[in-house]
Amino acid sequence: MAFFNSLLFGIYSQTKQSLQGGVQTSCPQPQIIIPSAAYGGAIISFVLCPSELVKCRMQVQGTDSLVPKSSRYSSPLDCAVKTVKTEGVTGIFRGGFTTLLRESVGNSVFFTVYEYVRYHLHLKLQAESSQHRHLIDAGVGVVTGGLGGVAFWSAVLPLDVAKTIIQTSPDKSSTRNPFRVLNSIYRRAGLKGCYAGLGPTIVRAFPANAAAIVTWELAMKALGIRHG
């Protein structure tokens, strides 16, 4: 996650700067934020998909009592190697399209919420004493990152549910179309089934993304990089 977040924030910042054409503005511009975030999400999906496939398969293998221990993966590397041997190189990228959709849409939502909430909070707090500036900035980072994370997962959790099913299905010939998977879930369990695991995901999303944003902004300050 450290690598993926570094890649995502780096691509987002550079793409945003390129689209701005060197013109710095504090007011959020959705025509710049959304394509920058979607592009960053699309790029990281290519490295995120294989790692998530391994993670998901390692997580669910112990839940199926019908799978003998001899057939279980002994390590993440063992899982990756066996996947490539049995399913080919494309097997390790199973669920890639769904991951790309999740990351592109999700990060567009995340960075839009982050940029707008950050902008309006700073407008309200700009008159505060400079001696409390660091605490105020950290507080803004917590709120913007946390709300952005909650918005991300609220928007794309169904795609994540579909991705997990696609990546962990024992039937390797089953559909890789996330919309067919979600349609099947909806007919069987309704909207609630498409949002399975929402509670734990939201509980994790707020502190995790708050920490990521606060760290990102502190790092930019320490490096003398201006937030555009």
UniProtKB/TrEMBL annotation:
It is a multi-pass membrane protein. Solcar repeats lie at residues 28-120, 136-222. Its main location: mitochondrion. It comes from the Eukaryota. The keyword Transmembrane helix applies. Belongs to the mitochondrial carrier (TC 2.A.29) family. This is Mitochondrial arginine transporter BAC1.
